[in-house]
Amino acid sequence: MSQLKSKNPRPKNEGQALIESLFILPLFLALLFFAIQISFVTISKRLVTWACFTLTRELLPLSPPHTPPKSMPYASAYRILSKIPFKKMPPFIEAHDFKTEVSVTISQTIYLWNIPHDLKNKITLYR
Predict the structure, then answer these.
(1) CA-to-CA distance for 127 and 124, rounded, in angstroms?
(2) Cβ contact 46:114 at 8 Å
(3) Which residues pair with 115 in a beta bridge?
(4) For 28, how many CA atoms within 13 A lie in the half-sphere containing its CB?
(5) Is residue 107 helix, strand or coil?
(6) Do the beta carbons of residue 120 and residue 81 sit within 8 Å?
């Protein structure tokens, strides 16, 4: 009677794909979440720029002398800044309305991993 050689039904590298996935998956997830965080920071910078430009454009028309300042442009700037997707401080808005130009500076502090970062923008439009 011939003796049958028993073949190992399981190859030695059976769990290799699982081990490779366990090494690569945390790296892939870290890169993915880092890219999402960077996109949120970019969106926040763009929102500060948009709010600054919107406020400058709304303050641009000359108002008659001895009229109180308008509050609606500031409301639109606050509405735009409220869309920033981070924990944030109230924005600092500084507007200078001269006869020849309008200058607006917005400073918004956001927190990334509980570290404060300041987003600033200044726009000057001439009449």
Answers:
(1) 10
(2) no
(3) 112
(4) 6
(5) strand
(6) no
